[in-house]
Amino acid sequence: MSKGFGPGALEACPAPHARVGFSGGDGEFRRIVIRGTLLELVTFGFYRFWLATNIRRHLWTNTSVEEDALEYTGTGRELLIGFLFALTILIPIYLASFAISIEAERWKAFAGLPFGVAYYGFWQFAIYRARRYRLTRTLWRGVRFWMTGSGWAYMARALGWTLLTVLTLGIAYPWREAALERYKLGHTFYGDLPGRFEGDGWVFFKRGWRLWLLLLGLFGFILVYVLALRNYVALSIFAVPIAVGSFFLLCFIYPAFKAVEWKWWAEGLRFGDASRDVRFASNLRPGALATNFWNMIGVCILVVIVAIFTMIGINIVFAVLQPWLLLPARYAVITCYLATVVVLGVVWRIYMGQRVWKIVVSSISLENLAAVDHVVAKSKAASAIGEGLADSLDVAGF
Amino acid sequence: MSRGSSNSDAGSREPSSSAGEGSFPALYLDGLTNQKHRVTVVPSASLDITGDGVSVAAWCYDDIRRADGPHGVLRLRNAAAAEFARLEVSEPTAQAWLQDLCKRLDGEGAAGHVSTARIVAWSLAAAASLLAVIWFGVPIIAAQLTGLVPLSWEKRLGEATDTQVRAIFGGRSCASAEGGAALTKLVSTLQAAAGLPIPLQPVVLDSSVANAFALPGGKIYILNGLIGKAESPDELAGLLAHELGHVAHRDGLRRLIQDSGTGFFAGLLLGDVTGGAMLASAGRVALRAAYSRETEANADRYAIALMEKLGRSPKPMGDLLLRISDPEKDNPLSIFATHPLREDRLAMLAAAARAPTGTPLLLFGEWRALKAICE
What we know:
The complex is a heterodimer of chains A (398) and B (375). Chain A has 398 residues and is α+β, with helices and mostly antiparallel strands. Chain A is 65% helix and 11% strand. Chain B is 49% helix and 14% strand.
């Protein structure tokens, strides 16, 4: 930290951070999701591939790094083809799991466990392949991201780390996240620029352990409470206040934890050689996601209240005025119920999708962006079929 | 992406063919490196892109497609050039010209070039064929597969579900010595008359619910509530004969295969649509009810034939059914009921009524012991 004004002082001055920005309008996204959801209903769900694509196009296009917007080049047709191919894998797995679960049931103690593990493993495989698909469809300044590595190797790691996380009651979670992201990003490239993840599990742990303790305390309390009071009457008296209290505590823990996790994750991202690389910074506060989350809870509660009153209203109208029309009343109630579920789905996609994306992305800035200058495009032509294969399991995500 | 934001004078200015006058600045990315080139674009016979006075590229208008770009920026790609080469135009007047000049801007290969109508049409066709598979194909496949499954597998299946059944109805099975002997006598009489090769395992569970059911592999569960409601051996025997019918037809196994198949295809159809899982399961229940009406009727016919063979009347079974069930016909959710409508069954059983000619199935003492099997 010399205060000299010698030559080179100007060069030593770090370049200003490049901001990552999000310019998508809430109304535009809402229209995309509502229109897509209605089309999903009309098409028996098949439109989901195009809705997922449109959501991603919106998010990518409106996200800019140093004024250059990302571009999503995937298509709904690719996702559909990927889904159809995934079926050829899923059908044998489905049949095998059916046979296994019958066999497993006879070993009573571990009934269903192998199936659960296999399903979880395949899910992890799918997560890896889905990330790969999305990255290879992500373009910035005319050069795309791409990924190597193996979904199966990732799956093995994920299974091992998850086992450790379960055995340690979650203590190992930060190191699990670090290790898995290290694998993913270690196999990620932007053109000829390799990615790297330097997030440290210990740092994550230090930032999040209080929330973990709170969660553990909550579960511990519920467990002790249930075990101590085996009396159903006593249990049921406090069941409602405890359930409501736990719900609100979880609503406090979850967004805070996610904010800590996102910030830690973003700060660990690197692109380039260790000597000269782009570093990511994030100014996400632990409370940054809370408002959005509570807004969502509020909207959901509102929707449910409106739905309940509508259903009660339907019942009153039909029962009082036309007691002989019981059947239409039931169908009206069922329709109302389904509409509520659909509306909640839209709410979920808006608040847990676009809004979270917006908040997280806007918190990020890049140091030394100059390191990505003169990157040369370099990637194998990724087959849409191969990439989209496992994406079918997770098309509703980003 | 803002087609609507073009200037009002867009149409009045024609792009000139001479360099300079109609030219406009743009950003060019060649798709090979991520270097941004500030270029001048000159619309002539083709779209000429020059940087620092040097020609960089020339794009034919018909090859130019719209790519996804941020608000206010027209991002173009060239269907005939490097896949990720991009030209970004920010000037509203220039954007308006380009939209005029590039006739296939939003044609095949452009971002968002999707025909929603086509997706809807194909989806409906796919949905119709999947529904046809579920409605017509799955039952046939299930029936075929049921015939192929060896009996030993079926027995395993029954054993696997045994744990669940016991969990639902309470684990205690009743087996007082005399009661058990009476039950064995009743069941083996029925089995001998039916000539059923599958060994039967009747189990009485200590539950007040009045019901009986068969699981794959010859396991027949009789809930004690049913024995309590039965007033004569013939009533109970009729219902047991009905369950024997299910065993003989391997209905449990077939239904399992059918449910799995239906669930799989319905899942294909609805995927992760919110509320889709619920819709699918509601459809499944309705579908299963439709099938079960048929299977129940078949089991009833089997019971009638079996009782007649033994010289006993099938009608008491109807009396027992009447006693244990509430009116069903008025139930608006009767489509979801897992049993056929009572009146239909009663009518069929009553039509088969006859005076008993064969030997009584149980002696009075045996019947009393069976009634007290759980005590």
